[in-house]
Design goal:
The structure holds two protein chains of two kinds. Helix content of chain A is about 70%, strand content about 0%. Chain A is built from five helices and no strands. The longest helix of chain A is centred in the middle third of the chain and has 42 residues. Chain B is α+β, with helices and mostly antiparallel strands. Helix content of chain B is about 40%, strand content about 15%. In chain B, the strands form three sheets. A five-stranded antiparallel beta sheet of chain B has the order 1-2-3-5-4, with helices on one face. A two-stranded antiparallel sheet of chain B has the order 6-9. A two-stranded antiparallel sheet of chain B has the order 7-8. The chains are: A mainly alpha, B alpha+beta. The interface between A and B is medium-sized, with 35 and 35 residues.
Chain lengths: ~140, ~300
């Protein structure tokens, strides 16, 4: 079974929360939490769609940067192993720890700052664009 | 007895208690701690000092503190003050202006008080001199972040390095008791006056500009408001200092969004609100840090977060 896709299921859940649950919640605190949940669902929908690919690109970008900086990098992942999100996160943490140490010793490096800007930009779909309306 | 959970709070739980003995507010940590990287006891101690006779600004009188409250977590109680966090007539420009002036009068009283005599030197880091206010603020929030980081963050490291250099250019006009979080939504209003100042979690001894930088819509006109404040306080706060502390607020903001993440992932606090603070708000704080440090070309205004805040 491929349909409904993850994205299509999210769309239905979000619409049900917004159109059915939200208008009927009377308790002020619960009502406020529903607004938060509705936005978090939009965040998850966008994150599920975009984060794995963005992280894959980011890890490659960062690995190249560390090479350019002449910093020893953690071992590259086994290319025969499926790059699951868990593995991508694990690799990102290892790479970013190395960069963090470099930044601590060499702040202000324009090559690093340029990369950090790209890293932030890659997260826009789920960290910026997915959110709308009151959050609480 | 009637218990109502105050819906707006993010950093800690606030319960409104209505019983035969009167109306009280109970503040307690979230199940996983607090979004603020300071202990609840600290917040109570701030109220206790401000509520002394002759205190500089009105606050709700604190009643007791306990390490093991009704939910088994630290909690304290304070008297409830009749009023509303909303301002009647808002956002009418004249209402906003009058409210802003009232707010600045209160801040001026706070900033010119004898904080040492009130005992604030016992609970806050005391800057060695006016020159050290901004430097100490950077170090305080950098430490508050680094002690609770759950993942390496080169953005934070780069931004902190930038702020360390920049802070030296902003000596304070005086060392003042500052509230930290101000303005619309942070105080109790009644009849156009502030009857209690709330939300002291980010209070510290600092440059008064630290407060003026975070007035959440109450500076009706930046130039006029600053002139008014300087006139009634006798302190010469500059627009440049305010701008610096606005940039620095990215670090302040990240200190609590980061702590929310820690509460969620390490202390297993399952409230959805923490997930919001740890994602969108944390990202906004990071963008603001990057913009302040000059490696993100686009400013991400906190006002883009509808009804955002702590």
């Amino acid at each position: 079974m491929l349909r409904p896709t993850l994205d299509e299921v999210f769309a239905n859940v979000i619409a049900s929360v917004d159109d059915i649950i939200k208008p009927d919640v009377r308790d002020p605190y619960a009502s406020s939490i529903v607004l938060t949940v509705s936005n978090l669902l939009r965040h998850l929908r966008a994150r599920a769609a975009h984060e794995p690919e963005a992280l894959w690109h980011d890890n490659r970008d960062l690995r190249a940067l560390l090479g350019e900086l002449g910093v020893a990098t953690p071992a590259a992942p086994d290319p025969s192993q499926y790059p699951s999100l868990a593995l991508l996160v694990e690799e990102a943490v290892a790479l970013r720890a190395v960069l963090d140490e470099y930044v601590g010793a060499h702040p202000g490096d324009e090559r690093v700052r340029s990369y950090l800007g790209r890293q932030l930009h890659r997260q826009r779909p789920w960290m910026v664009e997915a959110w709308e309306g009151p959050r609480r | 007895m009637r218990l109502t959970k105050f819906p707006r709070g993010v950093s800690r739980e606030t319960w409104l208690v209505n019983c035969d003995a009167g109306e009280f507010t109970i503040r307690q940590d979230l199940p996983g701690g607090s979004v603020d990287p300071i202990p609840l006891r600290h917040e109570y101690e701030i109220y206790r000092r401000l509520a002394q006779p002759g205190g500089p600004v009105p606050v709700a009188r604190p009643l007791w503190y306990t390490e093991v409250g009704p939910a088994g977590r630290p909690a304290y109680a304070r008297e409830q003050v009749e009023g509303d966090w909303r301002i009647a007539g808002w956002p009418d420009p004249e209402v906003r202006r009058r409210a802003g002036m009232e707010h600045l009068r209160r801040l001026a009283a706070l900033h010119t008080c004898d904080w040492a005599a009130l005992g604030f030197g016992e609970i806050f880091d005391v800057p060695a001199s006016e020159r050290e206010c901004a430097v100490l603020a950077v170090e305080y929030f950098a430490r508050a972040i680094s002690e609770h980081l759950v993942e390496p963050s080169p953005v934070v490291t780069e931004a902190v390095a930038h702020f360390r250099v920049e802070a030296r250019r902003f000596p304070a006009p005086r060392i003042s008791l500052c509230k930290g979080t101000n303005g619309l939504g942070e105080e109790v209003w009644r009849g156009g006056e502030i009857v209690a100042m709330s939300d002291w979690e980010l209070a510290r001894l600092c440059d008064p500009a630290y407060d003026l930088a975070q007035c959440q819509d109450l500076l009706w006109d930046e130039t006029e408001a600053l002139a008014y404040y300087n006139g009634i306080s006798g302190i010469g706060v500059t627009a440049e200092h305010i701008a610096f502390y606005r940039r620095l607020y990215a670090l302040v903001m990240f200190s609590f969004t980061n702590h929310a993440t820690k509460c969620m992932v390490e202390h297993h606090d399952r409230n959805a609100r923490l997930a919001w603070v740890g994602t969108e708000m944390s990202h906004v704080a990071t963008l603001r840090m990057a913009f302040a440090a000059g490696f993100e070309p686009q400013s991400e205004s906190r006002s883009t977060i509808a009804q955002g805040g702590r």
